[in-house]
TrEMBL record:
Alphabetic keyword roster: Signal, TPR repeat
Signal peptide (residue range): 1-20
Residue spans of the TPR repeats: 319-352, 432-465, 718-751
Top-level taxonomy: Bacteria, Pseudomonadati, Bacteroidota, Flavobacteriia, Flavobacteriales
Listed name of the protein: Tetratricopeptide repeat protein
Domain of life: Bacteria
SUPFAM superfamilies linked to this entry: HCP-like, TPR-like
Species this protein is from: Chryseobacterium kimseyorum
Domain Ancillary SecYEG translocon subunit/Cell division coordinator CpoB TPR: 58-201
Length: 987
């Protein structure tokens, strides 16, 4: 470590420029006044001498030319000696007037003295070089050499100065040698030639005149020679002397640095601190050194204060200081601040070893506490890339896997494992568990293909028995959701003798899988088994499915018994029981149960169906009046187009059964006009057929059929085209289905299967990734009342959503939000909710969110999305307490984006409540657990900057803003907010 030299003043010349003795140039034969002038000059009475010379020159008319020349010369020389104005010009004029004067050579010395006095060392040196040394006396020559050395020194020619002074020292008398030795010692010291400096200082160190002057040199030179013990000894002795405050500070510094070099930091500390206490602008080196010493003595807060003064620097010293600052922060458990310091150090490229050490600390600390500036995994990966064969590489690769794991970025965890040169039991265990977790995450998002891939990967390992069983179980759930019930059953059956957290639900899942496969005996077996130990929330459903199995097996008494047991549970129970009673031909009981449903559940989704079934039951009893009354209620109030059409047709049939054929035919014709070219037209024709058959009006029947769009003479080829198209469509062979539907519709543009064929053609286009053609067909279906109108509108909205055309999608969603199909209606609510939330129309979004949340048939993922939107609405409307409650319930979400937003909201309200430190801790938790969620991480950094302002740590606040501005250009609105926060810091 280099120490700043003591900057002693340049050695003082103790020889006045006026001491030079002049030779006598005139004889004793001159007159008295001229001799007087000469005597006055020689005795240095310059004013009187100049007066006499001037008098001779201006007033002595008989003055000889030689003496006139001498008088003019000495008049000007004395002017130079006395530094009178324009004296230099006078001497220059003399030289021009007497270029060959015998006195010419004598002008250079006084002129050099003049320049030296004016500190014009360049001209002085130039003039001195013109002096003829051989014309000078020994004393004059000594003076000349001193002046020459002085001028060279001041011009930066130390060697030249030393050479001149060495020569002067040889010829000088004892009275002058001390001064010259002092100057030579200083020059050798300045040139770092300590041996020669010691030689000259030793010759004068005992002289009272020089003792105090040379002792500081000894302290510095001992230090420079790395003789630290002598530097300390001499320095401490010097501190007891009467020396100036600035000298004392410099001596403290040398002593402190000597102890520092001896690693005696405790002894170095007070001396370095004394030095710094009087420095208004300490150097970077001084601050770094003091910070290092304080840190070694475990005075970490003090060390931080010194290092922090270097934060605006960009140098090798600053890089080292940032690294040491990070260590000091760690020592006082300020890990967040340490993270920033290590990051600053590693981002500098001055010292590769320091950069690597800082990078290592930065990576480990980011893994430990989270990193709001950049992903900890990215930092670790960069370390591995920068040091591919370093000794820490293996440790860092293991840390990388854990970092991805603990940050919740499971996909990158697997990527990191895939890049490992060799797997280990530890990484295999992580692979198994992370693959399982990724599978569940994708499953909850509804991405069943991805979930299947991850569960299969997890099942490649069997290190953790529980995870193996759970992966197999959820793989079965994937197959169930994909409609592959045999594969689901195969996985479930393998788990019947295993123990795992979901085991209680296994019989329930097996029951449903067999139920969906229409294997009712096995389904009954497992639902019965499940009901021996059911979860309360699934008990009623399992019982109802058991009843449904009995219903499907025509075991109506058993089904009714179960429905009776659950009749107070739901409207569904009453409805199913009523249908079962109807199948038993107990229409009185059927009507009673359906009327009970209407009474108990006036808002039920089964109301319209119940009224329709009552109408059917009364018709079965030939009570056509009551039957038509209930059909009339369905026609008047139901939004279900199917029920309305069927009720209308059934009512017309009732008129036929009452022998009111004219009234029946009139109603059927009206229905024929209303439902012309629809699927209902055939029913209408079939309903009307008995009327025309009864009267033998075959042509009327044909005309009636034709008028309502029913072609009773459909060709066989058309039927083949249509049925084949449906067959391929049912098999999901959409490509082949398209060709048959296109043929059918070309030959039958208004046939009985028009809307079904068009709808299924449009759906086939969609399934074969041809959304353009799909839209052309499905938009037509969605614009006309028909059986497939709502389904077509649903698919059109889905296409527009996929294309990012929310405006067009919204039109169709608004049309189907009141659909009689509960699934269609719920889909519209969910998508409209998302759109209103995106438009920041939170009042509408919240209404829809409440409806979505209330529907327990929605998936967990959909309900969670609704809860997020509701929470945003509450926050936006200033309902802080409710918003906090809403967000708190979302913090444990398996959806990383939802959980990250919830943690952001928590940090936001902590900031709002001035709990700045707690808010920062929450932000680091967000960064640590959800590093992949860049948007919420960036917004959280803005909060962090505000927290640091609240904590009065402007450096950290400013640093955080700078990181946002530099690294989050993808989010311009967040960068703009960061810039506004930074303006507040400057204020």
């Amino acid at each position: 470590m280099k120490s700043k030299k003591i900057l002693l003043a340049a050695a003082v010349f103790y020889f006045g420029v006026s001491e030079a003795q002049q030779s006598q140039y005139f004889t004793q034969k001159e007159n008295y006044r001229f001799n007087l002038a000469q005597n006055l000059y020689q005795t240095k009475i310059y004013n009187a001498s100049q007066y006499e010379y001037a008098r001779q020159y201006f007033y002595n008319q008989n003055l000889e030319q030689s003496r006139k020349e001498a008088a003019q010369f000495f008049d000007n020389v004395i002017g130079v000696i006395l530094q009178k104005n324009h004296a230099e010009d006078g001497l220059t004029a003399f030289m021009k007037e007497y270029p060959n004067s015998a006195y010419f050579a004598q002008a250079n010395l006084p002129l050099a003295d003049y320049y030296l006095a004016k500190k014009d060392f360049k001209e002085a040196l130039k003039t001195l070089k013109k002096v003829n040394q051989y014309q000078l006396t020994k004393e004059e020559n000594t003076q000349y050499i001193l002046k020459l050395g002085y001028a060279k020194f001041m011009m930066g020619d130390s060697k030249g100065a030393i050479d001149a002074l060495e020569e002067a020292h040889k010829t000088a008398d004892e009275s002058q040698k001390g001064d010259i030795a002092y100057m030579l010692g200083h020059l050798y010291y300045s040139s770092k030639q300590n041996d020669q400096a010691f030689q000259y200082f030793d010759s004068i160190k005992d002289q009272p005149k020089f003792s105090k002057l040379v002792r500081p040199y000894y302290v510095q030179m001992h230090y420079n020679d790395k003789d630290y013990d002598k530097a300390i000894s001499e320095g401490n002795a010097l501190l007891n002397e009467d020396i100036s405050a600035s000298y004392k500070a410099e001596v403290h510094k040398i002593i402190g640095e000597s102890y520092f070099m001896k690693n005696d930091y405790e002894s170095a500390y007070p001396h370095l601190k004394d030095y710094l206490s009087v420095q208004q602008n300490p150097s970077e080196n001084d601050l770094y050194e003091m910070g290092f010493v304080a840190a070694q003595l475990k005075k970490y807060d003090e060390a931080v204060s010194y290092y922090n003064q270097l934060i605006n620097s960009n140098s090798a010293l600053a890089q080292n200081a940032y690294y040491q600052l990070g260590n000091a922060y760690l020592a006082v458990d300020k890990k967040q601040e340490a993270l920033s310091a290590f990051r600053s150090s590693y981002q500098m490229d001055y010292d590769a070893s320091v950069k690597q050490l800082a990078h290592e600390q930065y990576a480990k600390l980011g893994y430990d506490i989270g990193n709001p500036f950049e992903s900890p995994t990215t930092v670790i990966q960069n370390y591995i890339t920068s040091n591919p064969s370093g000794p820490k590489n293996a440790e860092m690769r293991s840390l990388l896997v854990k970092s991805y794991l603990y940050s919740g970025n499971f996909k990158e965890t697997l990527n990191a494992i895939d890049k490992l040169p060799n797997s280990t039991p530890e990484t295999d265990k992580v692979d198994q568990e992370v693959s399982y977790l990724l599978g569940t995450e994708e499953f909850n998002k509804g991405n069943f293909d991805e979930a299947e891939r991850y569960f299969l990967r997890s099942l490649e390992f069997n290190i953790n028995k529980e995870f193996n069983s759970r992966a197999l179980y959820w793989l079965g759930q994937v197959y169930y959701q994909k409609g592959n019930y045999p594969s689901a059953i195969t996985r479930y059956e393998k788990l019947t003798n295993e123990t795992f957290p979901e085991k209680q639900q296994l019989p329930y899942d097996l029951g449903y899988a067999y139920f969906k496969s229409k294997k009712f005996d096995q389904a009954e077996q497992y639902f019965t088994q499940y009901l021996k130990n059911p979860k309360p929330e699934f008990k009623n459903d399992a019982e109802l499915r058991l009843a449904d199995i009995n219903y499907a097996n025509n075991d109506l008494d058993q089904a009714i018994a179960i429905y009776d047991k659950n009749e107070d549970a739901t409207d569904y129970t009453l409805y199913q029981k009523a249908l079962a009673l109807g199948f038993k031909n107990d229409n009185v009981a059927k009507i009673t149960n359906l009327k009970s449903l209407i009474s108990k559940y006036p808002g039920s989704e089964y109301i319209d169906d119940a009224q329709y079934e009552i109408g059917v039951a009364y018709a079965t009893q030939d009570d056509f009046t009551n039957s038509n009354d209930f059909f009339g209620k369905v026609i008047k109030s139901s939004s279900d187009k199917d029920l309305v059409a069927n009720a209308s047709i059934y009512r017309a049939q009732n008129y036929i059964d009452q022998n009111q054929n004219d009234k029946a035919l009139s109603e059927l014709k009206s229905l024929g006009t209303q439902y012309k070219n629809t699927a209902y037209a055939q029913k209408i024709v079939q309903a009307a057929k008995p009327i025309f058959t009864k009267t033998g009006d075959v042509s009327g029947y044909a005309d009636f059929a034709k008028n309502v769009g029913v072609n009773i003479d459909a060709s066989e080829i058309d039927e083949i085209n249509l049925s084949t198209g449906k067959q391929y469509f049912t098999k999901k062979d959409y490509k082949n289905a398209i060709s048959y539907y296109e043929k059918y519709l070309t030959q039958n543009p208004s046939g009985e299967g028009l809307y079904q064929a068009k709808y299924e053609l449009g759906e086939s286009y969609y399934q074969t990734n041809n959304p353009t053609k799909a839209l052309l067909v499905l938009q037509e279906i969605a614009s006309i009342q028909n059986d497939y109108q709502d389904d077509a509108a649903t698919r059109v909205s889905q296409i527009y959503i996929a294309q990012g055309n929310s405006a067009e999608a919204k039109k169709y969603l608004e049309n189907i939000k009141n659909s009689s199909n509960i699934n269609v209606r719920n889909y519209a609510n969910v998508e409209l909710m998302k759109m209103y939330a995106e438009e920041k129309n939170f009042s509408e979004a919240e209404k829809l969110a409440n409806a979505v949340i209330a529907n327990n048939k929605n998936s967990a993922a959909v309900i969670e999305t609704a809860k997020v939107i509701k929470a945003r609405s509450l926050m936006n409307s200033g309902k802080d307490k409710d918003a906090q409650t809403a967000y708190t319930s979302l913090e444990k979400s398996s959806n990383t984006e939802v959980a990250a937003e919830a943690l952001y909201a928590k940090a936001f309200y902590q900031n709002k409540g001035k709990a700045f430190k707690s808010s920062n801790e929450t932000i680091f938790k967000l960064a640590n657990n959800y590093a992949s969620e860049d948007y919420w991480g960036a917004k959280a950094l803005v909060l962090m900057a505000k927290n640091y302002i609240g904590l009065k740590d402007n450096y950290q606040a400013s640093y955080t803003c700078d990181q946002i501005i530099s690294n989050y250009a993808d989010f311009p609105e967040i960068v703009a907010e960061a810039k506004e926060v930074k303006k507040q810091i400057k204020k």
